[in-house]
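Bug: C-alpha cell stream looks shifted between consecutive jobs. Job 1:
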Amino acid sequence: MARSGSPDIPPPRFPSFLSAASGDAGPPAPPPPPASARFPDAPPAVGREPRRDGSATPAAGAVPPRPDQRPVPPPRRTGPPAETPSETTTRLRPVPAQAPAAPDPALSWNAPSAPGAPSVPTAPGGTNGAGRPFVSFGEPEGYDDRARPRPLGRRVRPGTAAAAACLVLGLGLIGGAVTGSWLVGDGDTGDAGNAFSAAAGLWHSVPVDELFPPTVRGQGAGPGGADRTWTRIAVAPDSGCEDAFDPLLRKALAPVGCARLLRATYTDATQSHVTTVGLLFTKADAAAMTALADRFEKEGLDRRSDLMPVPYPAQGTAAARFGPGQRASWTVSVLTEAPVVVYAVSGWADGRTVDDPQPAEEATESGATTAPAQAGLGYEAKGLADRIERGLRKNVDPATEQPQ
C-alpha cells in the first residue's frame, strides 16, 4: 500500500515498525550512533564554558582540585564607619568590646608576701604560712548589764558562769518545792488555820437544815451497795454535854472540851430502824484535835462498847422508845480540819433491847453474823454519819469535800 501519494495522511513517526508490520520492504534503517555519542565513557574535553574569572567550568563528574591553603577571610571591621556630611542624625555607635582584665596575682591567697614583710601569726606558736595574707574581721557588739556595748565574743568568766548555774539550780529547787507542796495540799497553812477557826462557829451560822437535812440520800450506803434514804423525825435543841454521853466517853472527850452539841434523829424508809447523829463542837485547836484522833485510832476507842454515844429519843416519834438499852451499832469520827466530833448510833424502832452491840466498822464487814450486822444497823449508823460529815466539810472548805 503506497502512502506517499496520499497528501492528507502525515508520514509515520516510526516507518520501520509500520513497514515490518505491513510486510512492505522499505529503505534500510540508518545505523545507530556510536556508543560514545549516547553514553560517553569519559567526560568530553570540549564543551566547557569559561567562568567569569577566566577559569573553565569543570565537567560533570570531575572532582575539583583541593587548594593548598585555606582562603584568607576579609579583615573584620573594628569600628563603625565615619559619619558622612550627608547624615543628619547622629547614629548610635557600638562600643567596641574590650578583653577582660586579667586578675592581679598579688591579690591571690597563694601569692607570696612582699620581700622583707614579716609573717603574721595566726595561732599561738604558728604563722600564717608563706605568702598567705592575714585577714581579721570585727566582732559584733552586744550590751552588758549596765547597757554598755560589749563584744559578743568575749569569754564569760568562770565565776559568772558558776553564779548563773547556782541561780538556775536554786530557782529549780524552789519551784519544785512549791509544786510539791501544792500537789500534796500543804501550800498555805494560813488558809487552813482560818478555815479551822471559821468551822468553830458553824453551829450558830449555818441553818439546821444544812447541818441536818430533812432527807438524806445514801447512794450505795446499804448492804450489797443498796441505796438508803433517811428521813429526819426530830432535832434536839442545842445544849451542852452534861447528859449527852456516858461517863467513860465524856472522860475520853474531855481534853478537847465541849462548846456546843447538836443532835438529830432519823428513820429509814421502812421506819423499822432509828439513828441518832450528833455534831460535837469542841474548844480545842488543831493540834489537840489531831492528838485526840491519833488516840482514838491507836487505842481503838471508837470500837469499845462502853464508849457508845447516847441516842436522842423524841417523844411522839418512831424513836420514842430508842434508849440506851436499844443501841445496836455506832461510829465515832474525830475531825482534824475542824474542831468537831461526828458520831451516830442506831437501833430498832420497836424498842427491842440488844445484848451484844457491835461497832459499825465490824458490823459492815463481809461475813458478820451478829444481829446488828444481819439487820444492817451498822450500815445505818455508818452511812448516815458519813453523809452528815460530808455536808459539814462542804461548809468548812469546799477543798476538803469528799466525793459522794
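Job 2, same session, no restart:
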Amino acid sequence: MKQPLRSYLLMVLMLAALAPAVIAQTAAAPRTDEAKKAYKAAMEEADQKIAAEVKAHSELMKNLEYLTTAIGPRLTGSKQMQQASDWTLKRFRDYGVEAHLETTEIPHAYYRGSDTAEIVAPMARRIEIRSMGWSKATAGEVSGPVVAVKMESMEDLSRFKGKLKGAIVLLNKPSEIPVDPEENAYDAVISPDRGLARAPRLGFQERIRMMTMIAQEQPAVILFDSGKTDNLFNMSSFSRYKPSEVPVAYITHEDFSLIYRLAAEGAVSLKVNLTGTFSPSPVPASISVAEIKGSEFPDERVIIGGHLDSWDLGQGALDNGTGSMAVLEAARTLKALGWKPKRTITFILFTGEEQGGVGVETFMKNHAAEVSKMDAVLVHDTGTGKVFSIALENLYETASLMGEIYEPLRELFELQPLSTRYFGSSDHVAFLRAGVPAYFCIQKPAHYREAHHSQTDTFDKVIPEEINEGAALLAAWAWNVSEMPVALPHHSPAAGR
C-alpha cells in the first residue's frame, strides 16, 4: 500500500467543497487564523513535553514485560485475562488516575488441550495441529478420508451434498502468502486487493452460514491453512464463546499444502485428536476504564484505547500488549505532567476484541446515553512498529479539524499525512457505527505478519523506542483533541461506516 502524499491544503479545499454544511454546523463561530496559530503553537509545546516525559520516565516496557511474562497470554474469559484486568486497574490507580472495571459475562471460557494429528495414507507422518478457539473436541482420536472443499460461494457447497460425513475437510486451497514487503502492519495481515477488480470476498456472516452448512454434513473435522510461513500457526474462532458445531483446527501452511497436493493425486487419510474443554457456566469478562476529568467540559470524552486480550499460542505481546501498554503509559504521562484537560480523557483497555468485540459492546451499552458527548476515539492495535499515520476512516467531514489536531504530531513524530484509506477491524469500529469520530493508528509491520495470532507473538519482538513513541503519540493526540476549541463533528449512525 502506498499512502497518497497529498498536502493538507489540497485536502482541506477538497473537503470544504464536498461537505461545507457539515463542517459549518460543527463550529459555534468561525475561528480566525490567529486562533488557529495560537492553538498550533500551544499544542506543539505541549506535545514536545509529552514526548520528553515518555522518553525520560516511561514504564511501558516494564509493564509490558510483566503483562506478557508474569501473566502471559490472555484469552477472553480466562483467569489470565481477568488477572490482567485487575492488574491494569491497579496500575492506573498507582499512577493516580481514577479507574474502574466494567464487567460482562461470556457463555463459556475455552481451555486449550493437547491436540495431535497424523497422515496415515498414502504415507505415515505426524503433523502439528492447533484447535481453533472454542472448537468442539473430537470424540477421541478420529480417522477419515481427506476431502478438499472450495468455499467461495453457496453453489460450491452443493457439489459436496452427502459426501462429507466422517471426512476430514480441507477447507479451500492453500493460502497465497504475499512475497512483497508490506508498508504497514494492517496489510501484513489483511492484504489489500491489487491490480484489476476481482470477485468480492465472502463476508463474515456468509462464512458463518457456510460453516453451518458444512457442519450439517457431519464431517469429522474441518482444517484451515494457517497462512503463515516457517511452520507458524494462526488462530481465530467462528463460534462466539460457545462450542463449535463440529471440531475445527489450524494446521501449518506447509502441512496444509502437502496434504492438498497429496489429495489432488489420490486418496489421503488422517487421524486427528482435539481435546479442548469449556467452563460449565458463564465467566466474567472485564474492561479497564480510566479517566482524567475535564476542567471545562467534563461530560465530553476523548478516548484512546487498545485491547488487552490476546490469543493464547504466544504471549500476547504485539497483539495487543503493545497497544494496551501504550494506552497505560499515555495515562501515566498525562497524569505525571499534572495538566488539567478541558475535556475528560478516557483510557480503555478492551477485552474480547479477538472474538468480535464483547468489551467495546459492553462499554457502548453502559455509556449509551453519553455517545453524543464522545468527541473522538483513537485505537492502537497493530503491534510494535512506528505509528506513521492515522486513518481518517472515511470521516472526511472531520478532516479540517483533524488536520489542525494532527499537524503538531506530524512535525514532532515525523508522520505521513492523514491516510484516506479505510482500515476498520478493531474496537473503534463500534464507535464509528454509533456516529462517533473514531480513528486508527497505522504502523510499520515490524514482524507483525509473523507474530499476529501465532506462537511467535512474544516479548522479544518488541521494539522499545517505537512503541514508546506510539505511547507519546496517543497521549499527545488525546491532549490536542481535549484542547481543540471546537468538537469534531459526529456522523449519522445509519451511515454504516
